[in-house]
Amino acid sequence: MNSFIGWIGGKKLLRKEIIKRFPENMGRYIEVCGCAAWVLFAKERHAELEVYNDANGDLVNLFKCIKYHCMELQRELSFMLNSRELFEDFKTQFNTRGMTDIQRAARFFMLIKTSYGSDVRSYGCVKKDVSVILGEKRWTQADLSRRTGIRPTTISEIYNEIIERINIDHLDLICEALDCEVSDLIEYKPNKIRRTGKDLMK
After folding, report:
1. 101: number of Cβ within 10 Å
2. Could you tell me if 185 and 174 are in contact, meaning their C-beta atoms sit under 8 angstroms apart?
3. pTM of the full structure
4. Residues near 181 by beta carbon (within 8 Å), at least 6 away in sequence
5. What residue ranges define each of the domains in the chain, with the CATH number in brackets?
6. pLDDT (tens digit, 9 = 90+) per residue, 148-191?
7. Fewer CB near the last or first residue (10 Å), C or N of the chain?
8. Hey, is 81 helix, strand or coil?
9. Residue 154 CA neighbour count, 13 Å, CB half
10. Number of neighbouring beta carbons within 10 Å of residue 170
11. Radius of gyration of the chain, Cα coordinates, nearest whole angstrom
């Protein structure tokens, strides 16, 4: 299975090569730097004992809440919207004293999902509504993959909002298959501080 989040320094592209180097019949699998747990999720089971670790306590808390309080976390997330203003609020709120582990995990999850490249620092500007459109058409991810010829793993990354780069050809195929506009999938949010323009040239 795939991880439910992206992460800078994650092992999504290296997981198969890493697993090839594992010894056979391991008794314990201990992740020292778990990140988004791409290696852990790559197989149903690596060993009898599996341990997830990471230096980032917010990541660890998110995984703990998903394991032990999944429904409560889903309920907390159901009231959260995607906007630049809320993104900035989440950055200041998720480590506020008095916040429960579930509230903290929900805000950290939203920071990961709505930040550029999952860096948790800058708002990503991308609005991905493929999941909503598929639901309206009663299609599965596999249906969209078959109709577009796009690999199921890529469709899954777009659907779960962990895609790191958007291929223009893929956008064209998805829009054609779903009979939608590019603006239904992507929304531009202006930067608060301009990054282009003649006044910025030196």
Report:
1. 15
2. yes
3. 0.63
4. 175
5. 15-118 (no CATH), 130-184 (1.10.260.40)
6. 999 998 888 888 777 777 888 998 899 889 887 776 777 666 66
7. C
8. coil
9. 15
10. 18
11. 19
